[in-house]
Amino acid sequence: MLNLKLRLGGIKLQKNKEETNQLKSVEGDMPPSVLIPLSMHIGKEAKPVVKVGDQVKKGTLLAERDGLISANIHSSISGKVTQLTEIMIGQRQVKAIKIENDYLNQLELLAQEETLEKVIAAAGIVGLGGAGFPTDVKFLGSTCDTLIINAAECEPFLTTDRRVICEYLEEVIAVLNLLRDTYKYQHITLVIEKHQLASLAFIKEPLEQANITLKIVGNHYPQGAEKILIKNVSQQELTLGRIPKDLSICLTNISTIYAIYQAVYKQLPLTERTITVSGDAIAVKKNLRVPIGTSVEWIIEQCGGFSKQPEKVIMGGPMMGRLLPSLSEPILKTTGGITCLSSEESLIPTETSCIKCSECINGCPVGLMPILISKAYREGNLARAQELGALNCIDCGACSYICPSKIDILSDIKQAKSEILKKIEREKK
Amino acid sequence: MSEFSYVLRDKVMSGPHIRSSVTSLAIMKQVMIALLFPTVAAVYFFGFKVLILIVISILIANLLEMSWHYFRKKSDQSNDLTATITGWLLALTLPVTVPVWILIVGNFLAILFIKELSGGIGYNLFNPAVYARVLLKLFFSDWITNWVSPGTDVVTTATPLETIGYFRTTLPLDFYSWTDLFFGFNLGGPVGETSKAALILAFLYLVFKKIINPWVPLLVIFSCFGTMFLYSGDFRFASAHVLSGALVFAAIFMVTDYTTTPYTDRGKYLFAIGCGVLTAILRIIIDLPGGIGVAILLMNLLTPIINRYTMTRIYGS
Hints:
Chain B: InterPro entries: NqrB/RnfD, RnfD_bac. The structure holds 2 protein chains of 2 kinds. By secondary structure, chain A is of the alpha/beta class.
């Protein structure tokens, strides 16, 4: 009753992109060594094919995919394998290979492959938007009729997708034409946020000529979330547990498209990526092209170090990124940026009582009533939390961000979700 | 490397790592700024004594809340300004002739009975100021309805509403002029409610600062107007009802209360329409003014039910 239309509200937040938006991506100094994790994707860890002491070139295969949902890993610099070790990334322990730089810059190209999927697989390309799903699997036997290219980088501070549009538009269009020819897509849509429109006016004509639709979405966060994009582009909704393929939609990030270009036309595997180094605690903000496996510490050094005491260094953006426990962690294939925040910018005041202002309800992009789920969880009522749609939460954090009482609603919902999933697991057995 | 080193103090936690700068306290401060508009008008029309009454009411409200927190050992609770707003609102709904003991009783009802006994901020079912005002009206009518006209001479008078309510359908011939009704000249009544001009400024301020949804007060007023128009068939009569009594004041400051109204916009709109229609009906069938207060309390009772039927639609459902 009375539930006619879904509000795709989202929230307004300070984007903090002005300073890096216009910065051409540059290359920093070569790091003395890189530490390359063997799991930078969703699925199984890759199997190492090198041993300590081996000489490798940039592009040499270090580990090959293990099973279908997995991805190849290549060396991002030329040098010598000095260590096969294990490191912590977030809560996960993963194998990693350390390579000392020999500064010879030798390059190894990909072998020729027969099909596009095989090229993508060989190059170890995964979704660069953050999820890290192996890209070849996404396209495998694709029968979708719509391809959506996500360039609506809604996370504050990050501008790498935008730089790809500015710097490699021709290359992106070439790949999109190739994908259209291969998979017979009827519609290809490139999605950008409204605030970028003026400065990206030059893309309209080339896109039109290539028969690619430009879709402009609002400036609200999180417009770049998969479910929200699908709703905006196709008016369809993904029901719980279904994937875009079920709606005949294939969705890819624009940086992934550029990685495909490198693999197809240059025979280069995915060994480097552009990241935005930003935040008020960094001395010089940059869009930096770095070898995968470079340590965060080296990257910060390339940006002149800190200008203020850093309170939080985040892998990714401040909304959905991961707080780094130390600066020794390496850059992954899925890293879109490093955000260094001072305490002024990242201070989280203490929680006060909920005043029922409804901001989280108005802001939830998937139509949940976040505060009610949080309350249900705190009261220990998991059944109620599930009934309220806790499992539909996309973890965007809009509710926690907007809450004037500074209640960490998302953290409650996340815990509720994991407990509900555990319960469902138990009941299955 | 720079002189700054990175030490993670707290345990590793998930995002978001930033928060909006708007706090509950900041919202309450905006409401207080909005309250200045009717307050200035009240002081202009009814004299400096109004200010003293407001200050006393605010002091009593805070004193009651602080003592409650002290006795309940909730000493960590910092002042969120909500008691101040309740005390302030209550004072604005009373006449300038109100004795101080009425302020004490009223705040006692609002702060202790309604707010704190329900569990404190965010938990009360009824709007504290409205609840106190309605009970005062019920039990202490004699002390809070000796309205006086603005000006130096203390002359008891009727409020406009008393002359047009209770099964009347037309305006009396000697009814107030529209300018008087709008600006609050020569009108008796609760000090904060007589100047609609000041209230509209407060409304615009709250809308501009994004504290309230503009449709909520507008729907209260439109639905009350509509009901009165259907009842009387007289455009002027219905308009007079909008400009008389506490309707505009309550629509802006009470019907928009976060805690006691529904969660979703759809729910808030239903709530607002309910308040407007009920007010009109109560004004027609009950001999005394104060309809909007009772209407709000009745709708407060319905809030949980409205909430149940106006849940948001979950994406993909």
